[in-house]
Design brief:
CATH topology of chain B: Transcription Regulator spoIIAA
Distance between the termini of chain B: 34 Å
Strand order of the largest sheet of chain B: 1-2-3-4-5
Radius of gyration of chain A: 15 Å
Structural class of chain A: alpha+beta
Largest sheet of chain A: 5 strands, antiparallel
Helix content of chain B: 25-40%
CATH superfamily of chain B: STAS domain
CATH architecture of chain A: 2-Layer Sandwich
Number of strands of chain B: 5
Number of strands of chain A: 5
Largest interface: A-B, 30 and 29 residues
Helix content of chain A: 25-40%
Number of domains of chain B: 1
Shape of chain B: globular
Oligomer: heterodimer
Radius of gyration of chain B: 13 Å
Order of helices and strands of chain B: EEHEHEHE
Strand content of chain B: 25-35%
CATH topology of chain A: Heat Shock Protein 90
Number of helices of chain B: 3
CATH class of chain B: Alpha Beta
Structural class of chain B: alpha/beta
Chain lengths: 141, 112
């Protein structure tokens, strides 16, 4: 699919989700995988905007590209924000995920949902760019 | 569909918040403001009407934690008519154990 380039701010999240939904439809992903892909991309992109751009005092774009082959749909997202590797982030433990809400920590949920929901998720730092790679196999489970 | 949130307080202190559209990090503050308003008005129970909510990111989950911490551990949170994507997000993170899930709204919920 033609890549999508949007400003690195939270108003862009909707356009990115719409692009991902179109790619998932083209790939023929089932509803569950479609939802999990949309969620993963939304969570990681939110982190890129909030931590990579806003909190680092940086501005830039997000480039989103869907690549389709016989086996899988790959979504590549690149930004020029501060280096941020979601795969190295601490995720909530089982105990934390089953704790009462009023005693819960608020961090790590988005990354947990990404790692749990995707068939594969990878991070690369290429020059001054972060590249997040989301992979869903096209066959239904 | 654009995000929309509205709050209604019943006479006996039940806060009913209706959510529609897509709840992401960009609009979660609007939801949090309504939760805050309900807490200020002394909500004893929180009912979230989600039939028209198509999507919820973790920013929505954090708003639920915020609600519980703001209103107190003894204030029950009801989630009504959550669609599959929202349900899946809540189940993956264990939130379905911490709220009361219902398929439909029942006026009984307003009896405290």
């Amino acid at each position: 699919m033609q890549p999508l380039v949007v400003p690195g701010n939270l108003e862009s999240l909707q356009a990115i989700r719409d692009y991902v939904m179109a790619a998932a439809a083209e790939a023929g992903l089932d509803r569950r995988k479609t939802n999990r892909l949309r969620l993963a991309v939304d969570e990681i992109t939110t982190n890129s905007i909030v931590h990579g751009y806003d909190e680092a005092g940086l501005e830039g774009d997000l480039r989103v590209e869907a690549q389709l082959d016989d086996q899988r749909l790959t979504i590549l997202i690149e930004d020029r924000g501060a280096a941020y590797d979601a795969t190295q982030h601490r995720i909530p433990s089982f105990e934390e995920l089953t704790a009462p809400l009023d005693s819960r920590e608020i961090g790590g949920l988005g990354i947990f949902l990404t790692l749990k929901g995707m068939d594969d998720f990878r991070y690369e730092r290429v020059g001054n760019r972060n590249r997040n790679i989301f992979i869903m196999n096209r066959g239904t489970e | 569909m654009a995000f929309d949130v509205s709050l209604e307080m019943t006479k006996n202190g039940v806060a009913k918040i209706t959510l529609a559209g897509e709840l992401d990090a960009n609009v979660a503050g609007e939801f949090r403001d309504k939760v805050d308003e309900a807490a200020q008005k002394g909500a004893k129970r929180l009912v979230l009407l989600m039939a028209d909510l198509e999507y919820m990111a973790s920013a929505g989950l954090r708003s639920l934690i915020f609600a519980k911490q703001k209103m107190g551990a003894d204030v029950d949170i009801y989630v009504i008519a959550a669609q599959d994507p929202v349900m899946d997000t809540m189940e993956m993170t264990g939130f379905h154990h911490s709220v009361i899930m219902r398929d439909e709204y029942d006026a009984e919920i307003e009896n405290i």
